[in-house]
Design brief:
The complex is a heterodimer of chains A (about 325) and B (about 260). By secondary structure, chain A is α/β, with parallel strands linked by helices. Helices cover about 40% and strands about 20% of the residues of chain A. Chain A folds into two domains: about 190 residues, P-loop containing nucleotide triphosphate hydrolases (Rossmann fold), CATH 3.40.50; about 70 residues, Alpha-Beta Plaits, CATH 3.30.70. In chain A, the strands form three sheets. Chain A has a six-stranded mixed β-sheet, with helices on both faces. Chain A has a four-stranded antiparallel β-sheet with strand order 10-11-9-12, with helices on both faces. In chain A, helix 3 crosses helix 4 and helix 3 runs parallel beside helix 5. Chain B has one domain. Chain B contains twelve helices and no strands. The chains are: A alpha/beta (about 325), B mainly alpha (about 260).
């Protein structure tokens, strides 16, 4: 997918999502996640490649695809002058629903996202979390088989995020809706998705279930923070020399080593470092996270969980 | 279901939004009355100079105010479209099964209804102030049809600009630049015999003059078939141009 100004947003990616799957697209800001969703949901025209959604060819049957899928965009898009109920009613009518069927579906969805009490209030008076829930309900109005969610919890507080996670898990488990989600949150990808593609700079860098991806690291991680950054190369050499260490990489404030069972070799790691005159200011052992997978593949961390609050624009206007 | 269903759904949305925004609604509805009172009262001395105006200057002015009000509400559609583009609501609509043209039609019909509502208020105010509508109810209905058609032609300009620039400021700036010459260098507010010759020439080609003259003939009498046809053909040509421009811009964002 190449934009008019020549920006190559997404390139050479290939993946498939099975029916009933909970699939995640994990990557940092600007990785190409939103572009991919916009292409898949007919909002952007791809410049090359082949896409089929719900068994339908993207180029030949965009209208049928729109019928089969529900989309929750990254920017919450509601008509703030209309009430919650009116927003859903309009969305339902635009999805060619009417009468009793629509009324019943609205009632059902308002209950699902727990907005029954405020359904008659203008959406402009809703909090960020409530708006997101209403937007989610409107994406579900026509009972789509496939739901696309573009960073559904970015900018939300922890509580609202947990609520959205519960709804999504329920939709996937109880109603068999296939879910395609993009996220920059490791925790979100780890908890929700059964299959993941990790994307960076418009390219796919890893595929698999969260546990498969983490296992691919080949064991635990030992993280060192060094007071003196100049010692990094030496620390890496020392660590490489310790039996059991599989790989060593730079990470932001220090060095990360990968080992089968870190607990068994930690004593030797410390002794070797000490002998080389290196004293880490901080040392920890952990089971690998998806961030380690990202680090292993790209040499950088995603690290959005802490930063994103500051980076994302305020949710409420 | 048809495109009519979609247009109706969106029309309801736009009308609900207007009702939820009472200041905007009231401003638009009261404006014609203010113009009518303001011009007719301020220009009483001037009115004495107007030779053989049947029904006096107030009757002359009423069609002008009707056209002026239509012009003031014409940018609403463009503003609303720019807002929908910026908020992502348009994308959201495009992700549904809505028939694309209904998004534009719903908006155009809203603007036309607004112009018709303003005209009705102007007519009622004029009647209270003593203007007699010589062609009766059928004449008034034809006035409303003319205004709606005129509004359709104008709205397209702002829809085009709104979709292209996505900036409401550009729309308000453009409306000022466009409307002052169009309304004042036309027969809408003053008889063109008062104008210098260049302005008379401009006025003779100005569609606002045609729309005002037809409406004026329906108020004071003397409508000819020829003036009706020439006004409708001219407004029709402008409508085709502005609607085509709107469609071209809309297709860029909607496909």
């Amino acid at each position: 997918m190449v934009y008019k100004d020549g920006t190559r947003a997404v390139e050479g990616i290939s993946f498939s999502v099975d029916e009933g799957e909970f699939f995640g697209f994990l990557g940092p800001n600007g990785a190409g996640k939103s572009t991919t969703i916009k292409v898949l949901t007919t909002l952007l025209r791809k410049t090359s490649g082949r896409v089929s959604v719900s068994g339908l060819d993207l180029d030949k049957s965009p209208a049928e695809i729109r019928k089969a899928v529900g989309v929750l965009s990254q920017e919450t898009s509601l008509d703030v002058d209309l009430t919650g109920w009116e927003n859903l009613h309009l969305q339902g009518r635009l999805q060619q629903m009417s009468g009793k069927i629509l009324d019943e579906r609205i009632a059902e969805l308002l209950k699902l996202v727990q907005l029954e009490d405020v359904a008659k209030k203008p959406a402009g008076r809703y909090s960020g979390g409530m708006r997101k829930r209403l937007d989610l309900a409107s994406a579900l109005i026509h009972t789509p088989k496939l739901l696309f969610l573009d960073e559904p919890t970015t900018g939300l507080d922890t509580q609202s995020r947990a609520a959205i996670w519960d709804y999504l898990e329920g939709l996937n488990k109880n109603e068999g809706i296939t879910i395609f989600l993009t996220t920059q949150y490791l925790e979100e990808a780890d908890r929700l998705c059964r299959k993941l593609s990790v994307i960076d700079h418009g390219k796919l860098i890893a595929n698999g279930s969260p546990s498969e991806l983490k296992e691919s690291i080949g064991g635990d991680t030992i993280n060192l923070t060094l007071a003196d950054a100049a010692l990094k190369p030496r620390a890496k050499d020392v660590l490489r020399g310790v039996p059991g260490v599989v790989d060593v990489m730079d990470s932001d404030g220090g060095v990360t080593a990968y080992a089968k069972s870190a607990g068994q070799i930690i004593a030797q790691v410390i002794t070797s470092l000490d002998r080389a005159g290196i004293q880490p200011s901080f040392l920890s052992i952990s089971s690998p996270t998806l961030d380690d997978v990202f680090l292993r593949k790209t040499g950088r961390r995603i690290r959005t969980d802490e930063l994103s609050r500051k980076e994302t624009e305020p949710f409420l206007m | 279901m048809t495109i009519l269903y979609d247009t109706q759904s969106l029309l309801e949305r736009y009308l609900t939004k207007l009702v939820r925004n009472p200041t905007l609604l009231a401003t638009n509805l009261v404006t014609p009355v203010i113009f009518l009172v303001l011009f007719s009262q301020l220009l009483t001395k001037f009115a004495e100079f107007i030779p053989n105006a049947p029904g006096g200057y107030l009757a002359y002015l009423t069609p002008g105010v009707i056209m002026l009000s239509a012009m003031i509400s014409a940018p609403l559609g463009g503003v609303s479209m720019a807002n929908d583009l910026n908020s992502g609501f348009l994308s959201k609509m495009l992700l549904t099964q809505v028939r694309r043209p209904a998004i534009l039609l719903g908006r155009l019909v809203t603007d036309m209804l607004m112009a018709v509502a303003q005209s009705i208020i102007t007519i009622v105010a004029a009647v209270f102030m003593g203007v007699q509508f010589s062609s009766g109810i059928p004449g008034i209905l034809l006035i409303l049809l003319t205004v709606a058609f005129f509004e359709f032609a104008l709205s397209g300009i702002f829809l085009t600009v709104g979709i292209r620039t996505r900036k409401t400021e550009t729309i308000s700036a453009l409306s000022g630049v466009l409307f002052f010459p169009l309304i004042f260098i036309s027969s809408a507010m003053f008889p063109i015999s008062f104008f210098p010759s260049w302005a008379q020439t401009f006025s003779n080609y100005n569609p606002v003059s045609y729309a005002s003259d037809v409406t004026r003939d329906l108020v004071v009498g003397g409508l000819t078939f020829n003036s009706l046809i020439s006004a409708y053909v001219l407004i029709g040509i402008i409508s085709v141009l502005t609607f085509a421009a709107t469609l071209i811009q809309f297709r860029k964002v909607a496909s």
